[in-house]
Amino acid sequence: MQELENPIWAALNSAQQHFSISAGAARRYPADVAPFLAVAQEGVPLTPDDLAGIASGSYYFLGAMPALPDGWSLQPLSGVLQMVYEGGPVAAPDALDAIRVLAADDPAMVELTDLAFPGYFRRRTGQMGRYAGIHDEDGRLVALSGERMDLGHLREVSAVCTHPEFTGRGYARQLVQFIMHGMQQQGVRPMLHVGSANARAQALYRSMGYAATRELPHARLICPP
Fold first, then answer.
1. Residue 92 has what pLDDT?
2. 211 phi, psi to nearest 5 deg
């Protein structure tokens, strides 16, 4: 699975080509879909024209890092651990009646994810795949999971988050299981990315059958002042 060494590039050149914007030697998602930019391999040079129209801090690289023109820089961020599902068939969760598939344009998804990882979930991220959530008695979205990068035979479980007032109830496990079950029904193998320092989340994913494959570098693109 060599494509997992550079998952954004792989997704934008396979199952998510319809989102791909060509930027010279780079490919990127529309800014309101996902904040990711990619090059084919480490050290690919980019020109100012390739990066035209990109606001500082609005895009990230994950995996292969480019050579940038003068004035541009990469702000290193904490590493990202990649994990791939190694288990068997995944059953639908027992609490299926509490889970709701969400509309792709549901603004509550942006509101909730901004509490956990602000800036990564955009207005149209919900168009990248199926997203599902759990709501409280007042109808507020309090837990979420869904699908983001799609490489065809591999798809990313993403946006796993729970409102701080509702942690410890098993919502994350239920939602991840729901999304994984749906992927397997389509013949797709689940994979995911999690912060290298997030030991709690990593323990959850390992208990669900995921195994670590590699740690990927992660950096924010900074434009000239």
1. 93
2. -130, 140
Mean pLDDT, consecutive 10-residue stretches, the chain (225 aa), reads 93 98 96 98 97 93 97 96 98 91 98 96 98 97 98 98 97 98 98 97 98 97 93
Please count the structural domains in the chain.
2
Which runs of consecutive H residues, i.e. helices, occur in the chain? 7-12, 107-116, 171-185, 199-207
Q: Which among 51, 74, 52, 53 has a CA at the least distance from the CA of 64?
A: 74
Residue 141 contacts residue 135 (beta carbons within 8 Å): yes
Rounded to an integer, what distance in angstroms lies between the CA atom of residue 147 and that of residue 35?
15
| Chain-centroid distance, C-alpha 54 | 20
Please tell me the predicted confidence (pLDDT) of residue 1.
74
User: How many whole angstroms separate alpha carbon 19 and alpha carbon 37?
Assistant: 12
* Host domain of residue 74: 2-81+218-222
Per-residue tokens: 114: 């901004």
72, 101: one domain: no
pLDDT of 27 = 98
Residues 151 and 136 in one domain: yes
**Do 200 and 168 form a contact (C-beta atoms < 8 A)?**
no
Query: 164 — phi, psi (to 5°)?
Result: -55, -30
